[in-house]
Amino acid sequence: MNEHQSKKAQNIWQAVLGKIEMRIPKASFETWLKDTSGVAFDEENSTINVKVNSSFTAQYLQERMAGIIERELNNVSEKRIQVNYLQGSEIVQNSKLDTTITPIKNDNKNIFPLNPKYTFDSFVVGDTNQLAFAGAKAVSDSPGTAFNPIVFYSGVGLGKTHLLHAIGHSLRNQGKNALYITSEEFTNQYISSIKHQTTESFRLNFRNVDALLIDDLQFLIGKEQTQEGFFHTFNELHLQNKQIVVALDRPLSKLDVLQARITSRLSGGLTADIQKPSYETRMAILQSKASTLEVQFPNNIYEIMAKKTSSNIRQLEGILNRVAAWSQFNGNKATSNELLNFISNDIDFISQSSKTFTSEEVIKTVAEHFSVTQDQIKGKQRRTNFLIPRQITMYILREETSMSLSAIGKVLGNRDHSTVLHGCLKISELMLSDDKIKKQIFEIKDTLLEVNS
Ligand code: ADP
Ligand code: MG
Q1: How many Cα atoms sit within 13 Å of 201 on the Cβ side?
Q2: Residue 346 alpha carbon to ligand 2 centre in Å
Q3: Shortest CA distance to 86 belongs to which of 46, 125, 43, 53?
Q4: By the 8 A CB rule, do 206 and 236 touch?
C-alpha cells in the first residue's frame, strides 16, 4: 500500500464518519464507529479497507449500518465504493456472503475469549467440587440433554468461572458454538439493544448459540428489565434444547430477589455447589499449580500455604505465584527457612489467612445446629449426641482457624492435643463415607459464613 492510498482512505472514511456522526445517536457512534479508521483505498476496484477493533464490530457494521455507510460513501465519492473490514491484517468475512459460518461464532471468540488455562485438565477435583466437576463434564459430553440448565454456585475464587470456561473449551473443540458471557456484559448489551432499538438482533445473537455460559448471574439482582431479557433468552434456548450453564455466588434458595420464575427455571436442572476445598485438595491444587509453573518447593512450604489459606483458591494461587517469583528471582536457591520467612512477611498472605471465625462462634454454631448446649460440647459425656458435635467442632476449628491442636483442646474442656487430632481424623473419615455428616458440616460452615458476613 502506498502513502497516497492510505491518505485517501483516511480522508474518505473521516468524511463518512463526520456525516454519520450527525445522523445517529452518540452512543451508537461511539460504540461502533469512533474507533474505526480508513487504512487503504484501492482505486481500481473501488474498495476501501477499514480497520475495526473486533469482528463483532465488523459484523455489526455490515449488518446493521451497511445502508447508512453506503449512502455516505456514495456522497463523498462519485463511484460506488465497497468496504472491507479489517481486524488486524485480516479481512473479516462478510457473513451475508458466507452463510456457512454462523456469525456469532467468530464474534464470541473475540469478545468473550476463554482463558486457555481454565480447562478440565487443569481443574483439580476434590470432595467439595466433584459434583460440579462431574456435572460440567456431563454437560460437555451431551449438551442440552444431560442437565439443562446446570447451575454452579459457590463463594468467590472456588472455580465457577474455571468450570464455565472448561465447558466452553470442550464444546468449541467439538465444533459447537459456546457463548461465554458475564451477566454484567449481558446487561450492557441488553440495555444498549433497547436504547438502540436493536433488541431483535440481540435476541438473534443469543438464539444462534449451542450453549450459553453465563457467569455471575447474581449481577442481575435488582435489574428487572434485564431479568426480563434473560428470562426470554433462557426460554428460547431451553425450548430448543440448547445448553444453559449458570454460575452464581449463592444458592438458589437465597435468590428470592430474582424474579421467581427465573429461579424456578434455574432449579429445573442440576444445581451443583462448590464448597471450600479440603486441606488435601488445597495441597493437590498447590502441587498441580507448582508443576505448571515449573517450580518445586519442600512439602512444608505447601503445607503452610494450604493450612492458612482455606477459603479461596485464587488467594492460594496468589501466594504460590509470589513465592515462585521470589524464589526464581533468587536463582531458586532459597532455603526452606528463607521461603518460610518470605511467606510469613507476605502482607496479602497474612491478611488473608483464615482467622475469620473465633472458637466461640464455632462452638456456638455447632451447638445450635445439633440442639445441644455449649457446655455439652465442651463437657465430658461421650454419648454420640455430644461426641459427634464435639468432634465436628474440633474439625471445623482445625479447618477454619489457625488454632493449634492444643489450643483447640484447651477451649474444648481442656482436652489434650491427641484427643483433638483423633477427633479431626474421625470426622475427616466420616466426611468421605457419610454424606449426612458431610452435609451437616457444610451447613454449619454456611451458617458461620453468614454470621460473619
Ligand atoms: P470463581 O469464579 O468461583 O470466583 P474462579 O473460577 O475464578 O472462581 O477460580 C479462581 C482461581 O482458582 C482460578 O485461577 C482457577 O483456575 C483456580 N481454581 C479454582 N478451582 C480450582 C480447581 N479445582 N483446580 C485448579 N484450580 C482451581
Ligand atoms: Mg467467577
Answers
A1: 18
A2: 25
A3: 53
A4: yes
Q: Which homologous superfamily does the CATH classification assign to the domain defined by 359-452?
A: DnaA protein, C-terminal DNA-binding domain (1.10.1750.10)
CATH architecture of 3-91: 2-Layer Sandwich (3.30)
Closest CA to 421 of 438, 404, 405: 405
Q: How far is the CA of 272 from the centre of ligand 1 (A)?
A: 15
Residues with CB under 6 A from ligand 1: 118, 122-124, 129, 154, 156-162, 285, 313-314, 317
Pocket residue to mutate for ligand 1, from 131, 162, 275, most atoms within 8 A of Cβ: 162
63-104 pLDDT per residue, tens: 778 878 888 888 777 778 889 898 877 887 754 333 223 333
In this structure, the residue with its CA closest to atom 10 of ligand 1 is 157
pLDDT digits (tens, 9 = 90+) for 206-240: 888 999 999 999 999 888 889 999 999 999 999 99
What is the fold of 279-353?
A: Helicase, Ruva Protein; domain 3 (1.10.8)
Q: How far is the CA of 153 from the centre of ligand 2 (A)?
A: 10
Phi, psi of 87 (to 5 degrees): -115, 120
Residue 40 contacts residue 94 (beta carbons within 8 Å): no
pLDDT at 356: 63
The Å distance, Cα 279 to ligand 2 centre, comes to 22
The predicted model scores a pTM of 0.60
| Topology (CATH) of 108-273 | Rossmann fold (3.40.50)
- The mean per-residue pLDDT over the stretch 349-366 comes to 78
Instruction: Assess whether pLDDT exceeds 80 at residue 8.
Output: yes
